[in-house]
Amino acid sequence: MASGLLEDLIESLRCLPGVGPKSAQRMALHLLQRDRDGARQLGQALIGAMERVEHCESCRIFTERQPCRWCSDEQRDPRQLCVVESPADVLAIDRSTDYRGRFFLLLGHLSPLDGVGPTDLGLDRFEARLAAGEVDEVTLATNQTVEGLATARYIAELCARHQVAVLQIARGVPVGSELEFADGGTLSVAFAERTRIGDRR
Q1: What is the pLDDT of residues 33-89, one digit of tens each?
Q2: Which residue among 26, 63, 111, 171 has its CA within the 20 to 30 Å range from the CA of 152?
C-alpha cells in the first residue's frame, strides 16, 4: 500500500500533460529509488520557476526579467512582430528560422465556446501597440488549426484597421498541425515563403 506522501507525489506528477496514473507512478518510483538528488534538484527548480518566472510586460513571453531577452535584444527589429500561440512556438521559430523581429505571445487562441476572447489573449494590448504606431509589419504564425486560423483572421483585421502590413507563414506547415511539432526544415521554409495578407489601406 502506497504511503500518503507517495500517493501525493504520484497525483502531483499527473498534472503534467500526457502523464497518466501509470506513468506518474513510474516516475515517482524512479525518483525515490534511483535519483533522489535529481528529485531534489527538480523540486528546487520548480519552486524557483514558480516564484520568479513571469510574463514579459511587452510580449507576454515567460521571463525572469523585464523586458525579456527577445524584447531587450537590440539586434532584433522592434517594428516587426511575430504573433504565436505558445512559448514553444517562440523557441521553435527562434531555433529554426532567420526571423529577427520580436514576438507577441497569445497564450492560446480565440475560442468563444470556452469563453476565450480577445482580451484573454492580450489583443487589447496588441492593438494599443498598433494604434501607437510602434509596429510596421506583423507575421501571423498561429497554428494551422481551425481555431488558429480564425484567430489569425481576427488579428489581420486589427492590423488592417491600423494600416499595418500583415504576412502569414506559408502552407508548408500542414493544416491541422501545431508549430512546435513541425520539423525545423519545414518551419524554416514556411517562414522564408510567408506571404502578405491584403493591402495596407
Answers
A1: 999 999 999 999 999 999 999 999 999 999 999 999 999 999 999 999 999 999 999
A2: 63
CB contact at 8 A, 179 and 141: yes
Nearest Cα residue to 108 out of 63, 55, 161: 55
DSSP 112: G
CA distances, 85 to each of 20, 29, 30, 101, 144 (Å): 25, 35, 34, 16, 11
Query: Please, what CATH class does the domain formed by 4-52 belong to?
Result: mainly alpha
Which residue(s) pair with 196 in the sheet? 167
- Beta-carbon neighbour count of residue 168 at 10 Å? 19
Say whether 63 sits in a helix, a strand or coil.
strand
Measure CA 117 to chain center: 17
How many angstroms separate the CA atoms of 58 and 103, rounded?
9
Domain edges within the chain: 4-52, 62-196
78 and 170 in contact (C-beta within 8 Å)?
A: no
The pTM assigned to this predicted structure is 0.75
If one looks up domain 62-196 in CATH, what number appears? 3.40.1360.10
